[in-house]
Amino acid sequence: MNVFKKFYCRAFQTVFRAALPLLPYREPEIMHSVNDVASLTDKLGVKSVMLVTDSGLRGAGITAPLEKLLEEHGVKCVVYDKTRANPTVANVEEALGLYNQENCGCLIAFGGGSSMDCAKAIGARVAYPKKPLSKLKGTLKVIRKIPTLVAIPTTAGTGSEVTLAAVITDSQHNHKYPMNDFSLIPRYAVHDPSVTFTLPPSLTATTGMDALTHAVEAYIGRSTTKETRQKALEATKLIFQNIKKAYDDGKDYDARANMLKAAYLAGVAFSKSYVGYIHAVAHSLGGQYNIPHGLANSVLMPYVLEAYGKKAHKKLHRMGVAAGVADETDSHEKGAEKFIGAIKSLNAQMNIPEKLKGIKKEDIPHMAKYADAEANPLYPVPALMNAKELERFYYAVADWSEQQ
To answer: How many CB atoms are located within 10 Å of the residue 285 CB?
Structure first.
């Protein structure tokens, strides 16, 4: 990256960091059982809600108890269950039509980050009925209040129940773009470990490593606060203590509860301190090939952390100590090496691949350009890179074997 762009990026990030204490961050009110949602609708005086989920969850009967409970309380439950991984503009517009048609007054996102992102975007469109999503992307474009949003995470990874972010895919251009606005933070979040019991091991692994990515990128960036550093370290400790337990035994209540807590803490941390190039590259891979976000983050994380080099060693060492995989007496370089090695080991233990299939060489410059545009100047990364420099990560994670 040339010196002028570096100066611009760092100046932008310095101003944004200085403004952090003045920005209207808030956290949702936490509930601990899905059963509490019905009484919440009574409190809100809502008679018609839209439940945003996916066909897999609904087909497995996981949303059925809530649907029945709402109906018993005289609340009409309108279900949109066509949310796909990496939700699209088409998903949002289809659900919006149903929301308006049924005169809904509240949104309930039930599922992983995709359902929550879809619900947030629906809310944004309700608030701005005359603006397409393409006009609402970016930062601080959704100023108006959206309908009350209740988030019920069934994965412990995205932390979307506490974040101001939503990521939507433009299928026409094979591009994912983020929306970052304080109004998108859910008003209520339900942390009920029982709804995560059916999450398969593969998704337990990749969503859990997604949460770790949030904690790591929030901690090693240059826009941290005492609060975000503390939450990122606590999340890291919880993940290293619990992710393999949840992977091995999906009905381990304590492990599932601790992973929900970790995802939440990491969500708070990165909402305020932002993420970095792992996320920017992962978003471009998701937009181009529909690669699940958690999987992309899991595979990319070690490569990007190694590329930051000595500019991240001190903070990665501290994370290694918090994770219990490095010692205080280690050099920063050695501690960082141990932490990155432990991430690789976790990936291997949970059968997360080292490479990603389907990446095409001719797509890499295009994706790197999108990653550059997303990350720079907003993300306060330890070391700045331009689009050309980001291309290395696509080559590093690409599985070329199928193209031989």
So the answer is: 30
Provide the total of helices (H) and of strands (E) in the chain, helices listed first. Answer: 15, 9
Task: For the sheet with 188-190, list strands across it.
Answer: 29-31, 188-190, 149-153, 107-111, 48-52, 76-80
* Alpha-carbon torsion (175, 179, 185, 188), positive or negative: negative
Contact 381, 238 (CB under 8 A): no
Residue 178 is predicted with a pLDDT of 82
Query: Among candidates 214, 107, 208, which has minimal Cα distance to 155?
Result: 208
Say how far apart CA 130 and CA 108 lie, in whole Å: 23
Please enumerate in sequence order all residues whose Cβ is within 8 A of that of 348, keeping only pairs 6 or more positions apart, or say none.
none
User: Using CA atoms, how far apart are residues 218 and 28, in angstroms rounded to an integer?
Assistant: 20
Tokens of 190: 């339900």
Task: Give the amino acid at 302.
Answer: P
| Mean pLDDT, each 10-residue run in order, the chain (404 residues) | 91 89 89 91 91 92 92 93 89 95 95 92 95 88 93 89 89 79 94 92 95 97 94 98 97 96 94 94 92 95 97 98 97 98 98 95 95 94 97 95 61
Query: Residues 65, 245, 239, 359: is their CA dihedral positive or negative?
Result: negative
Predicted TM-score (pTM) of the model is: 0.90
Q: Where are the alpha helices (DSSP H) in 60-128?
A: 64-72, 89-101, 113-127
In the numeric block, which tokens belong to residue 42? Answer: 């009574």
CA-based angle 107:110:112, to the nearest 5?
125
DSSP state at residue 395: H
Tell me how far apart the alpha carbons of residues 147 and 123 are, in angstroms, rounded to a whole number. Answer: 6
Of 306, 301, 307, 309, nearest to 281 by C-alpha is 301
Token pair of 130, please?
């005359």
For 24, the enclosing helix (H) or strand (E) is: none
What's the rounded Cα separation, in Å, for the pair 387 and 400? 21
Angle between helices 293-308 and 332-349 (to 10 degrees): 160
Phi, psi of 35 (to 5 degrees): -60, -20
Q: Return the biggest CA–CA distance within the chain.
A: 63
Structure-token pair, residue 393: 């990560």
Is the Cβ–Cβ distance between 169 and 124 less than 8 Å?
no
> What pLDDT does 85 receive?
81
